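Narrative of activities, Objective 1.

The group set out to show that a structural description can be obtained from nothing but a protein's sequence at a throughput compatible with the screening campaign. Below is one input-output pair from the validation batch, recorded exactly as produced.
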Amino acid sequence: MKTLFPSSFAGATIGVLLLAACSKSNGRYPDKPNEQPDPVTFNYAQAADSAQVSLYKDFFSSENYFNQNNEGHTGFNYWWNAHALDVLVDGYLRTGNTIYKPRMDSLLKGMYRKNGNKWLNNFYDDMEWLALASLRAYQATQDIKFKDLTEELWGYIKVGWTEVHGGGIMWEKNSPTSKNACSNGPALILAVRLYKLNGNAADLDWARRIYNWQRTVLVESARGIVWDGVGNYNEAMVLTYNQGTWIGGALELYSVTNAPQQLHDAVRLANYVVNDRGKFSPGGILKGENTGDGGLFKGIFIRYLTQLIIHGSLDPVVKNAYLQYLKNNGHTLVHKGTFYPGYYFHPNLTAKPANGKLDCSVELSGIMLLESIDLLKREGLLSY
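Output recorded for this entry:
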């Protein structure tokens, strides 16, 4: 992500962000009523299949990477393509369809070439997203090249930690004061997952250091929300994906330490986002954060809220509240926020792109929501 700026759980109930320099927004998505019928039930697995087909057909280039949009913009976005790999893994885990594996392989080759025949990137968060997706690809396929890539990237990422601002991983290697949530939350998740994979105590030490630094410097004590970065304590830049990775990171660390504070941090923040009708969830629907980079934000939050539901040892009342929240968001997407028959999505879930043209980031977020709902169904936690 390219930014310019360096209780009682059981009581929880389910009751236009200005992205500034953070997102390459262009505001070309008018709100248009969606004429799609509103059936009682909807098959999210079939919807995810249709959206995965559209993603590959309309965005994947002859150079083996996903274009910036389906309007002819062939720009390469390293971190968007990392999330595209994550989404391909989602499809593979849901279906077992062997078509996904060669697509993962091709994407890796295309990304490597477009990044100058190397994996090292100036942006630490970009490498973290790819490392997380590659680790999931390894766990899904057992193809060792994905594990090797994850560990190579982790080596580069750790170099980004400095003592400027008391610690933290830089956002960009040439910006030593840029200590951001987007470059620390994903690294926290990655460190714990690597510890689980390899049993290397040093990785768990890294996770604790990152967690303690972010909790001290970037998490507001009053509400538990995550600021964008050091020096950017701006309400307009409290972004959904940074909330998601903090939830995911605290959850991952809790899964190996059983420290109640870490689960409390995750649940407290999830409660806030789900219940906040002003900033995060107007009308009970996760807000849109426009196009460009912002198009990916909500999908990332949804991914880690889903993990909290599955693995968080939640109070049943809280778990049910989160499940209904995601179900409501999915229902809104498929009945109001989707352009048919192409399965193209609007940055806001309550309206559809008028002509089916959109950024790849927006398409990826929509697919993440569809895949998450079907995953919850497969886990026996949610029915359509």
